[in-house]
Write a structure and sequence with these properties.
Blueprint: H1 4-15, H2 22-29, H3 33-45, E1 49-53, E2 57-62, H4 69-73, E3 85-88, H5 94-103, E4 111-114, E5 120-121, E6 127-128, E7 136-142, H6 151-169, E8 175-177, E9 181-184, E10 187-199, E11 202-212, H7 232-236, H8 242-263, H9 266-275, E12 282-287, E13 290-299, E14 305-308, E15 314-317, E16 321-324
Parallel strand pairs: 3-4
Antiparallel strand pairs: 1-2, 4-7, 5-6, 7-11, 8-9, 9-10, 10-11, 12-13, 12-16, 13-14, 14-15
Length: 326
């Protein structure tokens, strides 16, 4: 998590086009000039290039290309989401760390971000391929005041936020596959995993994991994934900034969640339906309780998929693998 003084110091350096004296920084931040120097050194360790000239002060020359908390928070225009950001070069899973933070009482809006996951988690107990330095792997800790039945709505909200954020950076055809995938063509580019802690009908917290294939090349995917997965770089034919994408997602998510709190799920549902590829399709849903085949007719106000079989019976699908039939 980023030190508050360091955050303010970086803000002063970013808004200045030239040198800022150590004395001025000391007065604005109410710390000693020695403390300013120590924080400058910490920023340099994160990859910031900061010039220091005697009698002139400090000047920011270049920002790091890494996913360091300071490089994200300094540009993040949110009021609460991501302002407490925990970054790790390597973890087993960002979901695991987010759960630990939640159990320790961390407030809503904490975000865990990693450069590499050793055991990334997908839906239905699957693993998520998340190599070093190429993708965006993060988990959001949310403490929503909603009933347990409404939690699936947050998965759909997140898929819309991811799609809209990606489109800010690159123009490629994207669509959402119920309940949690963002696809380009028939290949997955992003997935969402929602986990929660609840008692009876009370939600304690929700952890929303987001995994996005950003800059992988085709040969970097395991052979068995090459027909199923793709990356933004492959589709756009250019590398993208993971930092800019992380910022865009957090800002879109907070904006959509504000709309959700103010107006309910209706507006988010409309946005999701405008971007989905699932509705109206002849699909097979493989659920934990068996397989159902039919036409996807829509989603309920709770985000549950409505599937009409060949006999006209409407099935509510809460969790399943969906495959479109030709």
């Amino acid at each position: 998590m980023m030190n508050e003084i360091r955050k303010q110091l970086l803000h002063e350096l970013l808004k200045s086009r030239g040198f800022v004296s150590g004395e001025e920084l000391s007065q604005k931040l109410s710390v000693s000039r020695t403390a300013i120097w120590k924080h400058i050194e910490e920023l340099r360790k994160e990859g910031y290039q900061i010039e220091a000239v005697r009698k002139q002060g400090y000047r920011l020359v270049a920002e790091p290309k890494s996913l360091s908390p300071s490089s994200i928070i300094s540009h993040l225009q949110t009021t609460w989401l991501g302002q407490n950001l925990h970054y790790f070069e390597e973890v087993e899973s960002t979901q695991t760390i987010a759960h630990r933070l939640a159990r320790e009482g961390a407030p809503s809006g904490n975000v865990v971000l990693a450069d590499h996951q050793q055991a990334g988690k997908g839906r239905l107990g699957r693993s998520w391929f998340s190599p070093k330095g190429t993708g965006l792997w993060m988990s959001l800790l949310i403490r929503p005041h909603i009933p347990l039945t409404s939690v699936p709505q947050l998965t759909l909200l997140t898929s819309v936020a991811v799609l809209r954020a990606v489109k800010q950076l690159v123009s490629i055809p994207l669509h959402i596959k119920w309940p949690n995938d963002v696809l380009c063509g028939q290949k997955k580019v992003a997935g969402i995993l929602t986990e929660l802690d609840a008692e009876a009908d009370r939600v304690g917290y929700v952890i929303i994991g987001i995994g996005i294939n950003v800059n992988q090349q085709e040969e970097e995917f395991p052979t068995e994934l090459r027909t199923k997965a793709t990356s933004l770089r492959i589709e756009a034919q250019k590398a993208l900034s993971r930092k800019e994408l992380a910022i865009a997602i957090l800002q879109e998510w907070e904006k959509l969640y504000g709309l959700y709190e103010q107006s309910g799920f209706g507006p988010v549902k409309t946005l999701w339906e405008a971007h989905t590829c699932s509705l109206g399709q002849h699909i097979v849903a493989r659920t934990p309780h068996g397989q159902v085949e039919g036409i996807a007719r829509g989603i309920t106000d709770e985000g549950v998929l409505l599937l009409e079989d060949g006999q006209g019976t409407m099935h509510k699908i809460y969790s399943a693998d969906i495959e479109t039939l030709s």
